[in-house]
Design brief:
35% strand; 33% helix; alpha+beta; 7 helices; globular
Length: 243
């Protein structure tokens, strides 16, 4: 397992604080103090150490898990200005909406599953002893118009691999937004020590398959009749990219 992703807190109360924040996406000091049986002075001390060690961020009394400290990237293509940046918990509703819009026709089952999980948990980013989940979003103004999502396992035998989904709502396709999101996701995964990424799509989603193939992804396997879309059985195309 990559040491950058191993969780080591050195104190049980500190681990409690981190786990509470991680489960809720973000919270306030009042939330921590009212929910945890820890001296309030101790909570602030532990948050300060977790912040120093790169586990948490604190901004305007909001405590959140620290995932990516890179600045937002501004881009312009034709007459469209967009920003690619790490997702925040406040993006949850807009992000889930964008994913569901892309997956609405049944052509991106993996993304649809991601939206279901995030919507159910009500938490965007995860980093615990079992999983790591990261999102970057593309925004036009205040609207989320695209995303890249990466999900890795903390299990040692799978720690070198992660699943990736990426998509852009139809209105904003053709401006390079998907390429910028994909590149941002690849850079993050490589920096976290992942060696191989996976993405799966129905064989009928020819545009998505061609998009990835044009950017160095390869078809690694195919599962016959894996999906049932309406009355039709459709193959799953399993794609991979080595980093």
């Amino acid at each position: 397992m990559d040491t950058e992703r191993r969780l080591e807190f050195g104190h049980d109360d500190r681990e409690q604080v981190y786990n509470y924040v991680e489960r809720h996406g973000e919270c306030s000091f009042d939330d921590l103090e009212s929910s945890l049986r820890i001296d309030p002075r101790g909570i602030r001390h532990h948050v300060a150490i977790l912040r120093r060690d790169g586990y948490l961020t604190v901004e305007d009394d909001t405590v959140a898990v620290a995932f990516d400290d890179a600045a937002a990237e501004e881009h312009r293509a034709d007459d469209v200005e967009f920003v690619v940046r790490p997702a925040r918990q406040s993006d949850l509703a807009g992000l889930v909406g964008a994913i569901r819009q892309v997956a609405d026709d049944g052509s991106y089952i993996e993304a649809e599953s991601v939206a279901d999980v995030v919507d159910h948990e009500d938490v965007l980013l995860r980093h615990n002893e079992v999983e790591e989940r990261m999102f970057f979003v593309a925004t036009v103004g205040e609207d989320v118009v695209g995303w890249v999502h990466l999900a890795g396992s903390e299990l040692e035998k799978l720690a070198h691999t992660a699943k990736l989904t990426v998509g852009v709502i139809e209105t904003y396709r053709g401006h390079g937004i998907g390429s910028h999101l994909l590149e941002r996701g690849l850079e993050w995964a490589q920096g976290r020590g992942y060696e191989k990424l996976y993405n799966s799509a129905p064989s009928t989603n020819e545009d998505a398959i061609a998009f990835l193939e044009a950017r160095g992804w390869e078809v690694e396997a195919r599962r016959a009749d894996h999906y049932r879309l309406g009355d039709d059985y459709v193959d799953e195309v399993m794609m991979a990219r080595r980093l």
